[in-house]
Amino acid sequence: MRLFSAVCVIAVCFAAALAAEDISVSPDVTDGVAWYNAASWPTEGKGWTETRRYFCRIPAAFEERVTSSVRDLAQDTAGLTVRFRTNADAIHVRYRLFSSNLAMPHMPATGVSGLDLYALEGEKWCWAACTMPTSQEDTKVLIDGLDGEMRDYQIYLPLYNGIDELLIGVPENAEFHAVAPLAAKPIVYYGTSITQGGCCSHPGDVYTSMLARRLNIPFINLGFSGSARMEPEMAEMIAQLDPALFVIDAVPNMNAPLIRERALPFLRTIRQAHPETPVLVVDGRFYANSHIKKGTAHSCQELSDALHEVYETLSAGDPNLYWLGHENLIGEDIDFDATMDSSHLNDLGMYRQADKLEKVIREILSL
């Protein structure tokens, strides 16, 4: 069984990916703070520009064609990030969230509704600060006491909430440069609540964002909680994009008959639109307590077998179709401690899945 190939499919130049264009933006100055509207320059992670709301993950033309749950979840800003460069000694944010539901019983407000700041130190992105939302609308200092050195930053937007407005503020005497998204072709990742970020503690910790920082390649996060069911409309929508790699990871939202009915036409729609683009099919993770719940393990195996049948049907004549099995995807055979509820990943699970995916993606794209 071919899992992935060492053949060079796509070469992505690290130096080219680092090149990020400065964009001229003008602030509104209030009480010594220069406020820059984050909607006035492109947001990384958006697959389409023609969206009903600026911070939205699907195109307006498909909002009435996809399911209502996908349409609603697309208003959540999972995976979206805003880049900028400044020498400010403090960074402020003023924001209005789309929903007043700031947290969930199994996921904190920092992950559901937080704004997550990372700073570039050399060639490594390092966490710096995260808001702790207590209201739908707020103005606050995100971080202060900075050393005043010029550096690149990015703010990840909420995973299970949306943004109606985001202003980034710096002292009016500080330099500020809006920075365009990375120029490299993105990786498109279609998946479930886990891909959307359930249930990590802060937005930058979802594995697609971890991988974007590690690989220096933009990711388009198309995770839709409970709603990744491989509908033909979703395949048509995703096929509009032109990425370096498609990743399809929808098993946890489906059952075996639905996989057998939909996975083959879904993948064929993408392949017909992109005959040479690599496609990575990801098997569903097994529930973390399936080692003592044999019925659960059997159900997970049924889903895995159904998807692998589809993969085998397509892969015989397709050298650019790849398979990533569930084995050790989140470290099940280590300590079974990578989830919050046996299904959704905690921060450790996100880290482990990022590790697993990174190795495969680097080989597929010859990075």
What secondary-structure arrangement, pairings included, does this model have?
Blueprint: H1 14-18, E1 22-23, E2 28-30, E3 33-37, H2 68-73, E4 81-86, E5 90-97, H3 109-113, E6 116-121, E7 124-130, E8 137-144, E9 151-156, E10 163-171, E11 176-179, E12 187-191, H4 193-196, H5 207-215, E13 219-223, H6 232-238, E14 245-249, H7 256-273, E15 279-282, H8 294-315, E16 321-324, H9 347-364
Parallel strand pairs: 12-13, 12-14, 14-15, 15-16
Antiparallel strand pairs: 1-11, 2-3, 3-10, 4-9, 4-11, 5-8, 5-10, 6-7, 6-9
Helix pairs in contact: 5-9, 6-7, 7-8
**CATH homologous superfamily identity of the largest domain:** SGNH hydrolase
**Total DSSP E strands:** 16
Shape: globular
Report the total helices: 9
- The proportion of residues forming helix, as a percent range, comes to 25-40%
Alpha-carbon Rg, integer:
20 Å
Largest sheet: 6 strands, antiparallel
N-to-C SSE series? HEEEHEEHEEEEEEEHHEHEHEHEH
Total count of domains: 2
Strand order of the largest sheet: 1-11-4-9-6-7
CATH third-level topology of the largest domain: Rossmann fold
Please identify the top-level CATH class of the largest domain: Alpha Beta
Mean pLDDT: 93
* Strand percent estimate: 15-25%
